[in-house]
Structures are given as C-alpha cells and as structure tokens.
Design brief:
This protein has 233 residues and is mainly alpha-helical. Helices cover 62% and strands 0% of the residues.
C-alpha cells in the first residue's frame, strides 16, 4: 500500500508546526472557556445589583471581557520582551536559559552570522548591512515591545470603560482615561500580573540549573553537570 505525497506533506505540516498549532488551539479553547465563565460571573454581579443580564454576544463585546483579556496579554508580552533583551547581557551560571558565561552582550557578527559572515540560507537582511540589518537583528524584541505597548494601551482603554460602567452602576462620577491610569484599580490589575510573570522567569532560570526534563529544549540533558551553562537537551 502506498502513501500519497499530499498525505505525507499534510502529516509533515502538522508535525513540523505542532508546537505552534497545539498552543494556538489551546489558547482559543481556553479563551472561549474564559468567555463562558466570565459572562456567568458578570451576570451574577448584575443580578445582585438588580440589573438586566447580558447575552453572550454582548459580553464578548463588553469592556469587562476586553480588560480581563488584555491585562493578561500585556503582562505576557512584557515578560518575553524583558526576557529577550535581558538575556543579551544577564547570565545565570548553570542554566540553559542563559547564554554561556563568556558571551554576554550582542556578540560578534561572526557569532551571529551577520554581514560578511551570513550564509546562503541566512535571512536576506542578515547580510545586507545598514539600517535593515540593524532593524532585523533586533526585530524579535522590537515586536514583543510593540505588542506589549499595544496590549497595555488596549487594557487601559478597556479598563477605563469597565471602571466607568461600574461607577455609573454605583451612581458615581466616571473618570477620564488619564485619571484611570493613575488609579489604584489600574495598577492593582497591572502589577499583580507583572509580578507573577517576573517570578515565573526567575524560577525557570534557577530551577533549570538543578532539575531536568528529558527531551525538552528548555532543560539541559539529564546527565549534564549543574554548572553547565547555555546547554540545551
């Protein structure tokens, strides 16, 4: 029995992209579950206040749902932005999350396969020089920073709307966007996410020095010594 080329190509696509597809699919499932649970909680609050409950569609387009989603997104993108830039210079002896101890900094063009050291299969902008090379060589961190800023702005706008809706339900005066940015509600929502992300990165960096996960690139090989740095399994 023969296997068609298209069948092999299809299996190859799913296998070759399984990490992104699995986590992307899980994200959509969890987001949908969050929407269901969030609407139920929101309607409970409305019922307690003697107000009319909202439909699922109304909740999905509400500021309450938007702020709950975006406040988590901005903290995640902040985590990766700080981690990407921080690991250029910061080291952790024995951690696979760290570069080797003698490679702190942006490294040489030879090490980074840039300029005249770019290979035939290198991305085009890696070898062109000038502003394009400068931009591309920092593109991952720049995009993560941009996503953080955009999601932070979205959180602040949605948070202002959600906060003002609650103010109106309590027959209190709404506040401006600038006033909300200075409010305890905004910073309580923001900082509780930031601290958890920073703790997670610090825990991963130090625990991976001494603990192992067989087969994971986030772990050193099981038999690697604790002091081995920048080694992935």
């Amino acid at each position: 029995m023969t296997t068609s080329t298209s069948g092999r190509a299809g299996r190859g696509f799913w296998r070759d992209n399984s990490l992104t597809l699995a986590f992307g699919g899980a994200f959509l499932i969890v987001l949908a579950c969050q929407a269901v649970a969030g609407r139920a909680e929101f309607n409970e609050q409305l019922a307690t206040a003697g107000l009319q409950q909202v439909t699922f569609g109304e909740y999905l387009t509400s500021s309450d749902f938007a702020v709950d989603v975006t406040e988590n997104w901005q903290s995640e993108f902040l985590q990766f932005f700080l981690y990407i830039f921080g690991t250029v210079y910061l080291l952790q002896r024995g951690s696979p999350e760290s570069k080797e101890l003698d490679k702190a900094g942006p490294e040489s063009e030879r090490d980074q396969r840039m300029g005249e050291h770019a290979r035939a299969d290198s991305p085009p902008w890696a070898g062109v020089g000038g502003w394009r090379q400068t931009l591309y060589s920092r593109s991952l961190g720049i995009v993560m920073a941009l996503l953080f800023v955009l999601s932070w702005l979205a959180q602040s706008v949605a948070g202002t709307a959600a906060y003002n809706a609650e103010q109106l339900r309590d027959l209190s005066e709404p506040v401006s966007w600038a006033a909300y940015l200075a409010s305890a509600d905004f910073w309580s929502r923001t900082l509780q996410n930031w601290q958890s992300e920073l703790l997670a990165v610090a825990a991963m960096a130090i625990l991976s020095v001494y603990l192992r996960q067989r087969g994971s690139p986030e772990s050193k090989p099981v038999g690697a010594p604790h002091h081995a740095t920048g080694v992935e399994g």
